[in-house]
Specification:
The chain is mostly beta strands. The chain has strands at residues 8-13, 18-22, 34-38, 42-47, 51-55, 68-73, 76-81, 85-90. The strands form 3 sheets. The protein has a 3-stranded antiparallel beta sheet, with no helix packed on it. Strands 5-7-6 form a 3-stranded antiparallel beta sheet, with no helix packed on it. A two-stranded antiparallel ribbon has the order 1-2. A hairpin with a 3-residue loop joins strand 3 and strand 4.
C-alpha cells in the first residue's frame, strides 16, 4: 500500500480498511450556516439567522436557491437570506436562466 498524503492522518486500520482524518479540513459552509446534506444535484443549508454565509461550491449563474440571493464570492458562492430557515441550492438548467438577487 502507498503512503497516504500528508494531510490525511490515520485514525484506525485493520487488514482491509483504513480510516483517516483530514487535517485542517474547512467546512463546506461558513458560520453561522450549517450543511444539512444533499446529493450530486443539490445542497441544503440551514441559516439560523438572516445574513450571509460562504458556501464552498463553485459559483454558477445557473445556481439558484428560492427566497435567497446567491452571488459570486471569489471562486465560491455567497448565500444571503432575509430570514432563518433551510435553503436548497441547486440548478434546474432551464431557460431563462435565474436572474440572481432581487
Amino acid at each position: 500500500m502507498r503512503s497516504p498524503p500528508g494531510w490525511l492522518k490515520p485514525l484506525w486500520r485493520d487488514n482491509e480498511w483504513a480510516i483517516y482524518r483530514v487535517q485542517d479540513a474547512v467546512p463546506l459552509v461558513s458560520a453561522p450556516a450549517t450543511d444539512l446534506g444533499g446529493n450530486d444535484a443539490e445542497l441544503v443549508v440551514r441559516m439560523p439567522t438572516a445574513g450571509s454565509a460562504t458556501v464552498r461550491i463553485i459559483y454558477s449563474p445557473w445556481l439558484s436557491a428560492p427566497s435567497a440571493c446567491l452571488e459570486r464570492a471569489g471562486e465560491w458562492t455567497r448565500l444571503t437570506v432575509r430570514k432563518p430557515g433551510n435553503y436548497r441550492l441547486g440548478s434546474a438548467y432551464h431557460f431563462p436562466r435565474p436572474n440572481g438577487c432581487t
